[in-house]
Design a protein that fits this description.
Layout (H helix, E strand, L loop, with lengths): L1 H28 L8 H20 L4 H24 L1
Helix pairs in contact: 1-2, 1-3
């Protein structure tokens, strides 16, 4: 369940970052006022810079840590149950 929520959060972030640039161009062409607001631009640029910095510095996504712990414990329990039966 937690992993599913994390996947959805990642999807929203990816769509926001990747889709944000064409939305700005489309918004300018269609005269959408909100695409010219600094809050939109700062939040979008901040998200891009955050992900780029993580990648350049070799830092794992903070959301990964939330998913990794339950996964590790599940894998450990699976291995223990396999060895217990043998």
């Amino acid at each position: 369940m937690v992993a599913d929520v994390i996947v959805v959060i990642h999807l929203v972030i990816v769509v926001f970052i990747v889709g944000g640039v064409p939305v700005v161009y489309l918004g300018v062409a269609l005269h959408w006022a909100w695409v010219r607001r600094w809050t939109w631009r700062v939040v979008h640029l901040g998200a891009i810079l955050f992900v780029a910095a993580e990648s350049l510095l070799g830092i794992a996504c903070p959301l990964y840590g939330i998913v990794a712990a339950p996964m590790k414990s599940s894998i450990t329990e699976f291995h223990r149950s396999c060895h217990a039966e043998a």
